[in-house]
Amino acid sequence: MGLNGTIIGVMKNFHFRDPDQLVSPVAFALTDIRRFNYIIIRLADDIPGALKVVEKVWRNVIPEYPLEYTFVDQDYDDLFRTQIRFTNLLKYFTILAVIIACLGLYGLSLYSAERRTNEVGIRKVMGAGPVSIIYTLSREFIILVVISIVIAVPVAWYIVEKLLSEFAYRIEIDFLIFFLISAGALLVAFLTVSFQAYKATGINPAAALKIE
């Protein structure tokens, strides 16, 4: 800028650009008003009253330029608004996907239990307990969920890594997060499928064997 002066203080780094950019050097200087681009003013608790004082001083000092102002908290909100909106959308779509998946699993488990009614009756006659029947009816679905997790985790890892790489300052991916998500998916899937499987254990074996 071609300014000469004495540095009277140094501030800690702070973001004043988009979060995907590194914090770059910036200098604040008291200089001729003709060099002014922005003025940062700290206001008291009475915001409306303080703004009136600022407007009055502005008209006395620089009457040829209109006073245009924004608040720092609003500027910061604008910087991160896109990321916050994307995060909220991702959260809602994730919840919707889980609900749809649970409904699909429940429907498939209901169909499987009805299709294997004879098998359940025979197993009960042969002495199989509720735990054994639930395991038998749930196993095929749990295996499919495990296969989907094995496929989804590497893909999710890659996508998250690409998204985080766009930020200058970022967290590191912890495998524990993927482990907990996978465990949660297995638990939800098991509870969804086992509910219908548990209902199937209560059927009468004699009535079950009569079903064609």
Architecture overview:
- The protein has 212 residues and is mainly alpha-helical.
- It has a domain at 80-210.
- The chain has helices at 47-61, 72-115, 117-125, 130-164, 175-200, 205-210.
- It is elongated, with a radius of gyration of 32 Å.
- The protein starts with 46 loop residues before the first helix and ends with a helix.
- The model has no long low-confidence stretch (mean pLDDT 77).
Strand content: under 5%
By DSSP, the count of extended strands is 0
End-to-end separation in angstroms reads 89 Å
Q: Summarize the biggest pleated sheet.
A: none
Question: In DSSP terms, counting alpha (H) and pi (I) runs of 4 or more, how many helices?
Answer: 6
Helical content (DSSP H or I, runs of 4+): 55-70%
Average pLDDT, rounded to a whole number, is 77
Which shape, going by the Cα principal axes?
Answer: elongated
- What are the secondary-structure elements, in order, as H or E? HHHHHH
- From the alpha carbons, calculate the radius of gyration and give it in angstroms: 32 Å
Q: What structural category arises from helix and sheet content?
A: mainly alpha
Low-confidence stretches: none
Annotate the secondary structure layout.
Blueprint lengths: L46 H15 L10 H44 L1 H9 L4 H35 L10 H26 L4 H6 L2
Helix pairs in contact: 2-5, 4-5
Summarize the structure.
The protein has 6 helices and no strands. It has 212 residues and is mostly helical.
Kindly list the characteristics that best describe this protein.
212 residues; mainly alpha; elongated; 64% helix
